[in-house]
Amino acid sequence: MHDARLVREQPGALREGMRRRGKGEAFAPIIDRAEALDRDRRVTIQAVEERKAARNAASQEVARRKRSGEPADELVASARELGEEIARLEQELAATQSELDAILLEIPNLTADEVPEGDEAANQVVRTWGAPRAAGEVKPHWEVGETLGLIDLPRGAKISGSGFIVYRGMGARLQRALMNFMLDLHTREHGYDERWVPLFVNRESMVVTGQLPKFEEDMYALRDDPLFAIPTAEVPVTNLLRDELLDGAQLPIAYTAWSACFRREAGAAGKDTRGLLRVHQFDKVELVRFTAPEDSAAQHELLTQHAERVLQLLGLPYRVLLLAAGDTGFSSAKTYDLEVFAPGVGKWLEVSSCSNFGDFQARRSNIRYRAAKGEKPRFVHTLNGSGLAFPRVVAAILEHYQNPDGSVTVPDALRPSLGVDVLR
Question: In which band, very low, low, confident or very high, does the pLDDT at 268 lie, cut at 50, 70 and 90?
Fold first, then answer.
C-alpha cells in the first residue's frame, strides 16, 4: 500500500512507476481520482477544524453570557447548527478517506530503479549454474512418473478435477523428503526460525500481502466462513507480526514454513497444464524476512542465495532472472525468479520468486520497528521467496536424472530420506 503523501507530493513518480510496468494509461484516471480525493480530504479536514473552533468559541461565549445573565439563545442555536454541519462534514470525510484507501490498495508497488522496463521479454538473466541436459533425449516427467508409479494423474482428476495430483509410494515419500531437506537446510544452515502455520486465513491477512482486493477471483474462498485457502505460506507468515512494534535490535527476523498452497488460476489459458507444471494444489517451503530499510537490498540477495542453495544441493541446473517491471508481481519492488531446466519438456521452469516488497506490505500490516530508544517508529521492509516449490522441482528431477532404462537417479541430498539411490 502506498503512503497517501506519495499521491499528494509525488504523483509524477507514481505515474512513472505505472508507466514502467506498462500500465500508465490504465492507472492515469485512477491516480487522477486519488489526487482529487486527497485534495477534497484536506479541504474537508480544514473545514471541520474551522467549524470546531467556531463551535468552541460559541460555547465559551454561551457559558459567559449565562454566568452574567445575558440571553444566549441565538448562540446556542448557532452552536447546534455548527455541530450538525461538523457531523455532516465528518461523514463526507470518512467516505472520501474510504474511497482513497480503496484506490491505494489497487495501485501496484513501484519497482526499484535497477529493474528494467518492459514486459516478460525484457527479463534479464543475471547468472546461471550447472549445465542443462540436452532437451528431447528423455521422456517428460508425467510419463516417467506414471511408469515408475510415482504419480497418479487420472485418480487426482477423478477425486478433485484437473490440476490436482495424487502422489504414490516413492512419489509420496519424495514429497516428505523434499520438505524435510529444505526445512532442515534453512533452519540449520541459513538461520531461519521454523513456523507451522494455518492453511486458511482471514480477509485482512490476504489484504496485507496483496492478494486482496486485486486478485480475489483467483483465490479459493470458504462458502460459510470468511476465510481463504492460502496461495502461499507468505500470507500467514508475514501476518505473524501484523500490528506489532519491533525492537530494531531483533532485525533481521527470518521465518521459514512448509505449507500446502491453493491457487484457482492454475492452468489459465491452457498454458503449461500437463503433468506437474501448473496445478491447483502444491507443497512449498517459504522463506520470509523482515529487515530495516537500509539493509533490505542486501537481505534480498541473501534470501535469493538461500533459495539457490537448495538447487545446488539437488544438482539441478538453473538460472536467475531479474524480472522486468511489467513482469514483476503486484506487491513487489524487485523480483528474482529461479528457473530450473526440464529437458523432457524442453523448458525453463520457475521454482522460486524471491521478492523485495520494500515497505509496501508493512504499511498494509502496520509492522514497524524502533531503531533506538526515543526514535520515531519506522516501517520494516518485507521480503519473501520460495525455498522451493515442490512440483516443478520433482519434474526437473525426473527429467534431469532420468536414465536410459527409464529409471531415475536420486539426488545425493535426498538419498538419506528416501533410502534408495535409484527410482525404478
Answer: very low
* CATH 3.30.930.10 is held by the domain 120-423: yes
Q: Cis link prior to 71 (omega < 30° from 0)?
A: no
DSSP string, 37-80: HHHHHHHHHHHHHHHHHHHHHHHHHHHHHHHHT---HHHHHHHH
Q: How far is CA 39 from CA 18, 90, 134, 359, in A?
A: 21, 15, 60, 24
Marked catalytic residue, from 263, 289, 364, 368: 263
Q: Is 353 a catalytic residue?
A: yes
**Of 365, 355, 379, the residue nearest 109 (C-alpha):** 355
Cα–Cα distances in angstroms (integers) from residue 180 to residues 177, 194, 310, in the given order: 5, 12, 12
**Active-site residue flag, 278:** yes
215-240 per-position pLDDT tens digit? 999 999 999 999 999 999 999 999 99
Taking domain 4-106, whether its CATH number is 3.40.50.880 is answered by no
For 400-423, the pLDDT digits (tens) are 999 999 999 999 999 999 999 999
Q: pTM for the complete prediction?
A: 0.93
Per the annotation, the verdict on 392 as an active-site residue is yes
